[in-house]
């Protein structure tokens, strides 16, 4: 069954946690879809995790469309969400144009970062019938890669709660809460009718999102994430074994090769002799 925004809202109403993972390529998309992940998310974190950029602000629409198309080919059932890259939603006209490009590439919805200042953009996208996911708290496009926890003071907590409500009232269908204190995230989750998706925002959001690299163990460990395997170590070991076996002649072996039938080989050898 293809998951849509109504399905995700129903999960919130039934208090069934929503699962979200970033995804940047076709084979990973196939695995996530087969595993039953609710939202496969093509995040602008592709810049730092795959493309070698210094930060997310370097990611372009071309980058995002390329990876979105690859992921789209691997997704059958999951809801497919994509990030609006830096400056792609700077004004309503630009946001609508770029969001429609993503929809034409197969996205089910778009995500954008920012608080009160993005209310007009969310409203404009909603008027066009475009599913829009808001994102408050730590915003990598705005705050950079150095993440700090939001919502530790009364003023900041109030600002986050008011921003979440305003974005939901503007038509946001989902909202990501990143690096927000657990208590404030719970208040927002209990207040809003739309699902909240937490990352480093505690246990009481309607769903959780993590970066695929972080759960696989690619890169340094992070407090808000859990490493489910050590991909970097295992992959490095595999590369080293391959290098060693090629160098010492133990790969390839006969099982890795194919052979021409003996009678055909004889004909080839006779032909070669006749040409000399």
Question: Any overview of this molecule?
Answer:
Helices cover 45% and strands 13% of the residues. By secondary structure, the protein is of the alpha/beta class. The protein has an eight-stranded parallel beta barrel, surrounded by seven helices. Strand 3 (79-83), helix 5 (92-104) and strand 4 form a beta-alpha-beta unit.
Provide a short characterization of the protein structure.
The protein has 276 residues and is α/β, with parallel strands linked by helices. It is built from twelve helices and eight strands. Helices cover 45% and strands 13% of the residues.
Write the layout of secondary structure elements.
Blueprint: H1 5-13, E1 18-22, H2 26-35, E2 39-42, H3 46-49, H4 61-72, E3 79-83, H5 92-104, E4 109-111, H6 119-127, E5 132-137, H7 140-143, H8 154-169, E6 174-178, H9 182-191, E7 196-199, E8 207-210, H10 212-216, H11 231-248, H12 262-274
Parallel strand pairs: 1-2, 1-8, 2-3, 3-4, 4-5, 5-6, 6-7, 7-8
**Helix percentage range:** 40-55%
β-strand percent reads 5-15%
**Helix-strand category:** alpha/beta
Secondary-structure element string = HEHEHHEHEHEHHEHEEHHH
Mean pLDDT: 96
End-to-end gap:
66 Å
- By DSSP (H or I, 4+ residues per run), the number of helices equals 12
Question: Poorly predicted ranges (pLDDT <50, ≥5 residues)?
Answer: none
**Major sheet attributes:** 8 strands, parallel, barrel
Q: Please tell me how large the radius of gyration is.
A: 24 Å
Strand order of the main beta sheet, please?
1-2-3-4-5-6-7-8
Q: How many strands in all?
A: 8
Assign an overall shape.
elongated
